[in-house]
């Protein structure tokens, strides 16, 4: 089954994050496979499949599922709200799994748990797509240069409540003398 290219980019344009002395991207395929083996299909299907070029400096990100693709910016408000609820549930699942693995007595499980902590990190909304209205993250395990991992990986997607718009401010009347 051919996968659809979602996004490409240079690795030097982003900062890799990780845990346990290792960055997530170096183990991206193993992380996806471990999630699949643990039957965490929703999480696995939300992580785009990375493919490095021959020089190892550029990566293509492919959708793990087939379907209609919409960028985050092109999605409707309702689609974004639904996807954000889905992502919040994924984040809770990943945090729980990460915590359980880090409490394990096995070093490999502890490393996996440490990597999971930063797996859902991504640079921003330009790296998130909806495939059949389900979110798929590109450049997961990365943040923008000179930034650190966020406590809430999806903070950049949250719709800020707007302050009331003042449509008309009456001009002050000139004082009469």
Q: What does this 3D model show about the protein?
A:
The chain is α+β, with helices and mostly antiparallel strands. It is 29% helix and 20% strand. It has helices spanning 28-37, 41-45, 77-102, 107-116, and strands spanning 5-10, 14-16, 18-19, 22-23, 49-52, 58-62, 69-71, 128-131, 134-137, 142-144. The strands form four sheets. A three-stranded antiparallel beta sheet has the order 1-6-5. Strands 7-8-9 form a three-stranded antiparallel beta sheet, covered by helices on one side. Strand 8 and strand 9 (134-137) form a beta hairpin.
Count of beta strands: 10
Main sheet record = 3 strands, antiparallel
How big a fraction of the residues is strand? 15-25%
Q: Average pLDDT, to the nearest integer? A: 89
How would you name the oligomeric state of the polypeptide chains in this document?
Answer: single chain
**Shape, per Cα inertia axes:** globular
Structural class: alpha+beta
**How far is it from the N-terminal to the C-terminal residue, by CA?**
83 Å
> Could you estimate the helical fraction of the residues in percent?
25-40%
Extract low-pLDDT stretches.
160-165
Order of strands, main sheet, comes to 1-6-5
Tally of separate helices: 4
SSE pattern, N- to C-terminal: EEEEHHEEEHHEEE
Rg, Å, rounded: 20 Å
């Amino acid at each position: 089954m051919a996968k659809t290219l979602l996004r490409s980019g240079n690795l030097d344009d982003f900062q890799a994050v990780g845990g346990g002395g290792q960055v997530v991207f170096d183990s991206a395929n193993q992380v996806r496979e471990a999630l699949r083996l643990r039957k965490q299909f929703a999480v696995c299907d939300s992580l785009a499949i990375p493919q490095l070029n021959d020089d190892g400096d550029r990566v293509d990100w492919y959708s793990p599922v087939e379907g209609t693709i919409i960028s985050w910016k092109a999605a409707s408000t309702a689609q974004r709200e639904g996807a954000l609820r889905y992502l919040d549930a994924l984040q809770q699942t990943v945090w729980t799994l990460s915590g359980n693995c880090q409490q394990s007595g096995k070093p490999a499980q502890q490393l996996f748990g440490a990597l999971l902590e930063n797996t859902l990190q991504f640079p921003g909304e330009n790296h998130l797509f909806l495939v059949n209205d389900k979110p798929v993250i590109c450049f997961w395990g990365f943040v923008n240069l000179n930034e650190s991992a966020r406590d809430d990986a999806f903070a950049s997607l949250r719709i800020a409540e707007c302050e009331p718009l003042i449509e008309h401010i009456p001009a002050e009347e000139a004082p009469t003398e």
